[in-house]
Amino acid sequence: MTLDALIDTLPTYAKDLKLNYSSLVRNNTELTPQQLWGTVVASAIATRSAALTAAVLQAAPAQLSPQALEAAQAAAAIMGMNNVFYRFHHLAANEKYSTMPARLRMNGLRGHGVEEVDFELWSLAVSAINACGKCVGAHEKVVREKGASEELVLATVRVASVIHAIGAVLDAVHAQAAITAPEPALA
C-alpha cells in the first residue's frame, strides 16, 4: 500500500494526524526535501510500525538519493542503540556509568555522505521518539552550533511526532482488526 493510501486509512479519531501529515509532509515548506524525507524515514523506523515503515520505505526512493536514504536508515539504527544506552545513563542513579566508555561502534555517525545538519536532525528526531534526553540535548546542540534555527529543529521534531503517532494508530488499528476478526473454522 502506498504511503498516501495508508494515511487515508487512518480512522476518524485520528483526523488531526491526517491533517498534520498533509501540512507537514505533503505541503512542507520548512525543511528541505532531504531533511523532510530523511526525518520521515528515520522516524518511521523508530516507530517500529511495520505497515508505516514499509510504506515509507516504498515512497522514499522517489524523494531521497540512495545515499540519503541509507544515511536516514543509519541514523535510525545507530540512535536506536544509542538512545537505550544513553537513556540508561540518564535513568541510573550511579553516576559512574557516565564516566565509563560506551564501547559501542558508532561509525555511522561519520562518513554517511549527507549534510551534517541533516543527519543530526534525523538523529534528533529518533532521539525525541525514543525519549532519550541526553541524545536530544546533544544533537540539538550540534545542529544549533552548525547554524540551524530553533524553527528548523522544531519543524523536524513536529514531523517526527506526527509520524510516531501515525505508527501508533496504525498498530492500534491492526490490533483492533485482530480482535474483531472471526475465528478460523477448525477442520
Q: Number of helical segments? A: 8
Tally of distinct domains: 1
Q: What best-fitting shape do the alpha-carbon axes yield?
A: globular
Binned, the helix content reads 55-70%
Q: Describe the sheet with the most strands.
A: none
Proportion of residues in extended strands? under 5%
Ends distance: 32 Å
Give the SSE string.
Answer: HHHHHHHH
CATH superfamily: AhpD-like
Q: Which class best fits the helix and strand makeup?
A: mainly alpha
Which CATH first-tier class would you pick? Mainly Alpha
The CATH topology name reads: AhpD-like
Task: Point out poorly predicted stretches.
Answer: none
User: Any guess at the CATH architecture?
Assistant: Up-down Bundle
Average pLDDT, all residues: 93
Radius of gyration over all CA atoms, rounded: 18 Å
Total strands: the figure is 0
Commentary on this structure:
- The protein has one domain: AhpD-like (Up-down Bundle).
- Helix content is 68%, strand content 0%.
- It has 8 helices and no strands.
- Helix 4 (50-59) packs across helix 8.
Question: Which keywords apply here?
Answer:
single chain; 187 residues; mainly alpha; AhpD-like; 8 helices; 68% helix; globular
Q: In short, what is this structure?
A:
This protein is mostly helical. It has helices at 3-8, 15-26, 33-47, 50-59, 66-91, 116-129, 133-145, 150-180. Its EC number is 1.11.1.28.
Strands, helices and their partners?
Layout: H1 3-8, H2 15-26, H3 33-47, H4 50-59, H5 66-91, H6 116-129, H7 133-145, H8 150-180
